[in-house]
Write a structure and sequence with these properties.
The complex is a heterodimer of chains A (116) and B (112). Chain A has 116 residues and is mainly β. Chain A has no helices and 11 strands. Chain A has strands at residues 5-7, 10-13, 19-24, 31-37, 43-50, 53-56, 65-68, 75-79, 88-95, 106-107, 111-115. The chains are: A mainly beta (116), B mainly beta (112).
């Protein structure tokens, strides 16, 4: 029973390059959330997706960041023209389609992005 | 706009004693509260949750208390064990499935 998978676990990019972060939700989960954790801070919500739909992107920066969750394949968080301030840990979480009072989000191990 | 606050960045407790972690929130629309535990280089792991219709939820060594009038919740761990040494995050949501807003975390160290 594999948990949420994220790859790569570590990613180094130079300023101006693109970063692509992948997230495969737990089996049977159809909802994906992306969070970012800057050093010494808590996790900050970025975007909530269902298959082929963006449900809530209120936490996404307006420029350079995009996310998708296609019908087939993993969810992708894409950062174009990275800057040093994008260096952070990016966590993906997934949840099942039906919600009960104890249902919650299950997190992956994260991708640590370092921008040089 | 920090709507969930954990004002104690760290807590040291002796093995076998009780750990009490505190969390305050400002948004009265929050309806669902959770605690996560996080080890270095890993993702957060769900511990326990509580909805706003309750004031207490217990699961083994972990108990969460919710005081809605004070907009305050706490996590009690008893007895504390060395494996409990980790960062604990409080999180809140307007629904049981919506986006989570996290506090900054409390580093717990359990000493022998």
């Amino acid at each position: 029973n594999a948990g949420v998978m994220q790859n790569p676990r570590h990613l180094v990019r130079r300023r101006g390059q693109e970063a692509r972060l992948r997230c495969s939700p737990m089996k049977g989960h159809s909802h994906v959330y992306w969070y970012r954790q800057l050093p010494e801070e808590g996790l900050k919500f970025m975007v909530y997706l269902q298959k082929e739909n963006i449900i809530d992107e209120s936490g996404m920066p307006k420029e350079r960041f995009s996310a998708e969750f296609p019908k087939e394949g993993p969810s992708i968080l894409r950062i174009q023209q990275v800057v040093r301030g994008d260096s952070a840990a990016y966590f993906c979480a997934s949840s099942p389609p039906k919600r009960g009072p104890q249902e919650t989000q299950y997190f992956g191990p994260g991708t640590r992005l370092l921008v040089l | 706009d920090q709507q969930v606050k954990q004002n104690s960045p760290s807590l040291s407790v002796q093995e076998g004693r009780i750990s009490i972690l505190n969390c305050d929130y400002t948004n009265s629309m929050f309806d669902y509260f959770l605690w996560y535990k996080k080890y270095p280089a890993e993702g957060p792991t769900f511990l326990i949750s509580i909805s706003s219709i309750k004031d207490k939820n217990e699961d083994g060594r972990f108990t969460v208390f919710l005081n809605k009038s004070a907009k305050h919740l706490s996590l009690h761990i008893v007895p504390s064990q060395p494996g409990d040494s980790a960062v604990y995050f409080c999180a809140a949501s307007r629904t049981s499935w919506g986006k989570l807003q996290f506090g900054a975390g409390t580093q717990v160290v359990v000493t022998p």
